[in-house]
């Protein structure tokens, strides 16, 4: 399937339009849920670490340091993409599956359209381009949520910000982006495969959407471990 998507589009304008439509659906349509989840994840992380450090001799600004690295290395890319696997993955599988069941894909193939390139290419490329931006937004909102929660726990914002700026390593940001790109490819490719090759009726379409979410989630967690083993 992936080999078939690698081709120069017959009508580049239509491909370009579809690419931006997919980026808009995936990116703009997911900002709200990613933002809400990220803020609360950052807040919960800050509260829990504040509780664990309250009776120790460790300085309070360590909370900001721990929240920052936890979000960059793990929470922002992994949790965000698991959520997107459910939201975006099921949507992609349902769209392509509906087109397959209603024979729209067969009609396009009869007309000589490279359906793999036209239907799957923009979805995979759009996901790989826009999901890393969602992960960056998730990281920023997660740290902001952690700062708000720390303020309610008695840690001044300037102390939390000191922790955010302490021992900063660019490698952690690069690791986050690598995970985001890999996870985006997994979400889009698995969902496209399940939807494009579905057979049967509406019942099989529902099963294909479920398989897309489950398989993408398992692969995200698997590659999360593999990337950590290789790069850390």
Spell out the blueprint of helices and strands:
Blueprint: H1 2-5, H2 12-27, H3 31-53, H4 62-101, H5 104-110, H6 115-152, H7 157-165, H8 170-196, H9 202-231
Helix pairs in contact: 2-6, 3-4, 3-6, 4-6, 4-7, 4-8, 4-9, 6-7, 6-8, 8-9
Which key features would you list for this structure?
232 residues; mainly alpha; 9 helices; 0% strand; elongated
Report on this structure:
- This protein has helices spanning 2-5, 12-27, 31-53, 62-101, 104-110, 115-152, 157-165, 170-196, 202-231.
- It has 232 residues and is an all-alpha fold.
- The chain is elongated.
General form: elongated
The succession of helices and strands, N to C, reads HHHHHHHHH
Q: Quote the average pLDDT.
A: 91
Low-confidence stretches: none
Count of individual beta strands = 0
How large, in whole angstroms, is the Cα Rg? 21 Å
Report the biggest beta sheet as strand number plus sense, adding barrel if it closes. none
Give the end-to-end Cα distance, rounded to a whole number of Å: 32 Å
Determine the strand fraction and express it as a percent band: under 5%
